[in-house]
Structures are given as structure tokens and as C-alpha cells.
Amino acid sequence: MPSTPESGAESPPITRVSTLELFFDLVFVLVITRLTQYVVQHPTWAGAGRAALIFAVIWWMYGGYAWLTNSVQTDRWGRRVALLTGMAGFLVMALYVPLVFDDGNGLPFGIAYLAVTSIHAALFARAADTSVVRAVFRIAPLNTLAALLVLAGTAVGGTPAYVLFGLVVIACWAVSGMVNASGFSIGAEHFVERHGLVVIVAIGESVVAISAGITGTDIGAATVITALIALAISAALWWVYFGGDDRRAERALGAVGPERRGRVALTAFGHAHFVMLFGIVLMAAGVKKAIGEPTHALHGAGPVLLAGGAALFLIGEASFRRILRIGSPGVRTVFAIAIVATIPLGQHASGLAQAAAIAGLFGLLFVVERSTQPR
Prior knowledge:
With about 375 residues, the chain is mainly alpha-helical. The protein has two domains: about 160 residues, no CATH class; about 180 residues, I/LWEQ domain. Helix 2 packs across helix 6, helix 8 packs antiparallel against helix 10 and helix 10 runs antiparallel to helix 11. The longest helix has about 35 residues. It is globular, with a radius of gyration of 21 Å. The termini are far apart.
């Protein structure tokens, strides 16, 4: 039986992200780090596909916790302990990212996922708003089924695990769109800030990748220049998202009626942000490849990861704009295609040359957008 909401006066609306939620995001970013390492170690289409499957499954439940703290205050002792326990579950999942499909060795990942899902439902059941409680118990069976499929997949590993994880992604990200989300009372100010924070800590991973890509102590001028250009690309990602779209998104989400806000939030902050964040994962892996030998042509998947990740971020952000109707997505989509066109430069010239071209394209993007803005 579902728990009843806590008695007492209704909690005031949640308008700002708490330090506990920020702490939660700092733990979650370890998932980004581990996925980046996984792609670096498996720089193939299959490796990127497996990383995408894992991230899609984890991102679904991270999003669930963002919706949770948008509705349930984290100011009580019991809730804080429960949320910290959920953080521990995400930590275990991050640690076992490389073993998820490895013949049953990833079982702790599945156990942690089931625990995180159970804690999520239990905390949501304590919401003061009864409409929120009813809404979460419409989605809880789907979450539970997904967790059980993840558990089964990590128990068996191999091809069956790919199939089961694929079913989870389809169930969560496709079927969920048919579930009535109108009961969720989404506070736009908190919701936008929470997702913005996870974007900024993920961009931070692309900066960390600069150091991770340097081996040894012989740091030449080319390495320093490549590192500075890689930082410029990371700064460009920041500018793309935080150059005004975050503030416009807050106003746009707040203007959506309650009956549609849940679905808009799912697509804009669930689907589009998944694309952006996975783009950061791929780009960070590409930075590690490029900075290791900056003056040499990049072999293997390095150029594809570097350009593909940056382009994927732009495509996700353009989709974010389109869903919320906060700006024209066309220019950013065109520049995403232009960034993909730098792949041969990395393959035949050098990582430094490709990174410089990508940074230059971002600079040109900002010039074009500024020149086309209404005065």
C-alpha cells in the first residue's frame, strides 16, 4: 500500500537547490567520469553504444531524483538520510559501470539500481501534495519493472543484458511519454537550476579530461596550447547553455500550463539533456585522446569522439531550445554539422588542429548568433 503524505501544513514551494542536492550532483558526476573512462578504453561504435545504454538507464533515475527534490523538501533528518543512501547507490553504480555487461560481474550495479528506485518511491510517497503522490504511483510500477530488468541484465551479462537494458530504455524513455504526468507540481525555478547544475559539473569533467590526457612530466608548448584550446571548447559549451538559455528556459517552463508542464519537462530536461550530457562524455573522451599526442594525426576513434561529442551537445541544446521555444535551433544544428566535418582534420593533421577548428567554429557560432539577434 502506498504511504500517506506527511501530516501538517503544506510545505512552501521549493525555489532553490539545496546544498544536499548539489552534493548529490557531485556524486552523480562520478558516473560521467566512469563513462568517459569506459569510452576511452572501448573507443568503438559498440563501446559508445554500451555507454549510451548504461547512461540512459542511470539518467532516468537521476531525473527521478530531480523531480523528487522539486516536490519533497530535504529539510528533515529522515529524508536527508534516505537521500544520502540514494547517493551511495549512485556511487556503487558508477563504480560498476565497466562491469555492467560482464557475465554477471555487474550484479552490484543492478542491486544498487533497485535500491535507488525503492528509495525514490518511498521518499516521493511522503510528498505533502496528494496529487503528486497519486502521480508518482502511476509511474512507480514502470520504475520497478525497469529496476528488475536491470537487475536481471546485470545478473546474466552478455547479449541478454543488452536486450534487457534496451527494453528498459524503451520502457522509460518512450512508454513514459504515455503516462499522465499532470499530477506532478513542477517548480520551474528549482527544476531549471537543478538541471543546470548537473550540466556545469559535467562540463567540469571535460576540463578534468585535459589533465587526465597528459602522461608523464614532459609538457611541451603543443600540449599547453592544446590544453588551452580544449578549455576554450569547454567554455564554449558553458556559453551555449548558460549564455541566456537557462534563464529563458525558466520563464518558458513556468509559462507552460500545469497539465502540460510534466511532459514538456520530460522531453526538454530528460531527453534533450541526455543528448547534451552524453555529448560531454564523448567529447571528454576525445580530449583525452587528442591531448596525449597533440601534434600527431589521431588514429582510431579520437577525432570522431572529439567532434561527435561537441556536435551532439549542440544538437541536444538545439532540441532543448525547440521544445521550450526559447530560440532558433537552426543555426546551432548547422554548426553541429560543421563541427562533424572537422573529423578528417584530426585524422590526417593533428588533434591540435582539429581542436582549434572546433573552437573556431564555436566562436563563429557566437558571432553569427549575436549578429542575428534583434536590436
